[in-house]
Amino acid sequence: MIYADHAATSPVRREALEAMWPYLTGRFGNPSSHHTVGEDAAAGLAAARASIAGVLGARAGELVFTGGGTEADNLALKGLALGRPRGRHLITSPLEHEAVLASVDYLARFHGFEVDFLTPDSTGILSASELTSLIRPDTTLVSVHYANNEIGTVQPLAELAAVTKAAGVPFHTDAVQAAGWLPLNVSALGVDAMSLSGHKVGAPKGIGLLWVRGRLPLEPVLHGGGQERGRRSGTENVPGAVALAAALATAESERVATAARITELREQFTTEVLHRVPDAQVTGHARLRLPASSSWVFEGTGGEAVLLELERRGVICSSGSACAAGSDEPSPVLTALGIPEELARTAVRFTFGPETTLEQVKAMAGAVADSVEAVRTLA
């Protein structure tokens, strides 16, 4: 089997498993407990927080551990929007993860926020000049992802964040797909809040985090015992936090070399597929995209049918966002790029991992050609 759906989830790294094991066994304490067992767990949590802060170029106290990327996005959107006294206006894009879009919809329906959506070009890139035109005196928050989970397009975050900084508006980015592939230094990016998810970078599912700059007011989404400095109540997932720290540190140490190698493999895969299926179309930006992301539409097929044929040939991939798997509706991301609905329904996404090899890439390209031909023959 060749696994090419790392954007949905990645296998747990050995470093993460080894780091978390003591906190699943002997060091099992509640980090809020005031005895030696609890203090031991608290020390592990603090070390994990400091390690992650080092990768982000942030302060440890600015991190909030969550149950995953979705919770981190919800806390960012709702927490920052409701925590600021200024205005009731949000700016985002139609390309965002559903966790962001659903949070924006909630704020509009229940709290009276007005929402403006940036318009992507045909490759998924958003414009700093358009953002400038949309910002108002009552703009509360801007949220734009770092890299898209379906098409892999990477946004010019520093340019967008410079616009919001000049206007005094906080800027949040969902960097779930970027972790392990792109630089995460928050000062260099210029952002004010960043969401991450553990299982995209080699930690187990069920752990994520939100970084929020300095003293930005953040209204909690979960209320209770006041953990995470009152920003996210609930007993912390210490093993998960320790695993996330280990996975992120390992991924960051390997990032530059791995990204360069996988980019070359992705380009070879693109060349091979286009040679075998000349009318295939790559979606997203040709150059400004995640190293591991290769997304396609194949006219005259159905995305789900091609996926089944690929799986029969030992290739595991997806038709887009894992959160929308099984839906017959065309991807909102692709239709936002101007791709017709019928063609958008043919989408197939391949996302490679750090261990992907040249032999696997060649085998996948052959499987793509055979699968597309099989579906077209049946049609």
Describe the structure.
It contains twelve helices and twelve strands. By secondary structure, the chain is of the alpha/beta class. The chain has a domain at 2-6 and 255-378: Aspartate Aminotransferase, domain 1 (Alpha-Beta Complex), CATH 3.90.1150. The chain has a seven-stranded mixed beta sheet, sandwiched between helices. A three-stranded antiparallel beta sheet has the order 9-10-12. The radius of gyration is 21 Å and the shape is globular.
SSE inventory with pairings:
Elements: E1 2-3, H1 14-24, H2 36-56, E2 63-66, H3 69-83, E3 89-92, H4 98-111, E4 114-117, H5 128-134, E5 139-143, H6 157-167, E6 171-174, H7 186-189, E7 193-197, E8 208-212, H8 238-276, E9 281-282, E10 293-297, H9 303-312, E11 315-316, H10 332-336, H11 341-344, E12 347-351, H12 358-378
Parallel strand pairs: 1-11, 3-4, 3-5, 5-6, 6-7
Antiparallel strand pairs: 2-8, 7-8, 9-10, 10-12
Neighbour order of strands in the largest sheet: 2-8-7-6-5-3-4
Summarize the helix and strand pattern as letters: EHHEHEHEHEHEHEEHEEHEHHEH
- The CATH homologous superfamily name of one domain equals Aspartate Aminotransferase, domain 1
Q: What overall form do the CA principal axes indicate?
A: globular
Q: Could you name the CATH topology of one domain? A: Aspartate Aminotransferase, domain 1
Report the structural category.
alpha/beta
Multimer state: single chain
